[in-house]
Design goal:
5 strands; 5-stranded parallel sheet; globular; Rossmann fold
Length: 233
């Protein structure tokens, strides 16, 4: 069975669509588990890897007023099969998360880039070797750029669509949602450019890109499932 990577800005519905695709094709769904496994390889807390991926220095000052609410919400709702994080915690400003964990804002710098990307790449490649998986984000389309039997999907959506998605999903106020969308997308762009010297929204890095301002998640999942059939036919 194929391996499918799905990448897109926060609020595009990558997780929802990925779960639908995984269910329809009977594939393993892999999201934060990539960093969970990578953290075991390097002996570093998962939060350190998250901070490496999502580091945005202004987060702590701009978002502090609702951090405690987010932590409480995350603690009350978990994601089956993925330890360490509850739903919503992936959106937590990384420096703030590290402070609350007692590790300090400079902890991400203790994990050098080479170790970080080698561990992450190894986990993604091991998942590909086993096959039958949907991988969300983590630059998996770049790590598996030339891998056989792999389908790379990119998602896009207008800013307003992504803001509305976070407001509905996380019950954020508009300002909170706008900050998350804008700053996490900047962090995502910086992360991809830092390690692969490309912009994450460049279409040449995907088999196809879907505009989630023009279709609902169910339709997107059906399109991806149909495209995946080309890999197995």
């Amino acid at each position: 069975m194929p391996v499918i990577t799905i990448n897109g800005p926060i609020g595009c519905g990558s997780v929802t669509i990925g779960q639908m695709v995984a269910e329809q094709l009977n594939l393993n769904f892999v999201d934060r588990l990539v960093f969970t496994e990578a953290s075991r390889l390097v002996g570093t807390p998962v939060g350190t890897l998250i901070a490496k991926e999502q580091r945005v220095d202004r987060f702590r000052d701009r978002m502090g007023r609702f951090v405690q609410t987010m932590l409480e919400r995350s603690a009350m709702s978990g994601v089956s099969g993925e330890p360490y994080f509850g739903r919503g915690i992936e959106n937590l400003p990384p420096e703030t998360y590290m402070d609350l964990a007692g590790e300090g804002v400079g902890v991400a710098h203790k994990l050098d880039d080479k170790t970080f990307i080698e561990a992450t790449s190894k986990v993604v490649k091991d998942i590909h070797r086993k096959g039958s998986a949907v991988i969300i984000g983590r630059g998996a389309n770049q790590i598996l750029a030339d891998a056989p039997n792999t389908l790379h999907i990119g998602l896009l959506a207008p800013l307003e669509v992504r803001v509305q998605t976070l407001m509905a999903r996380e019950h954020f106020e508009r300002e909170e949602a706008e900050i998350h969308v804008e700053e996490l997308e900047r962090a995502r762009e910086d992360y991809v450019y830092k390690f692969w010297k490309v912009h994450p929204n460049e279409p040449q890095h995907y088999h196809m890109m879907l505009n989630m301002g023009k279709m609902n998640p169910k339709t997107a999942a059906e399109v991806i499932v149909h495209a995946a059939g080309d890999l197995t036919s």
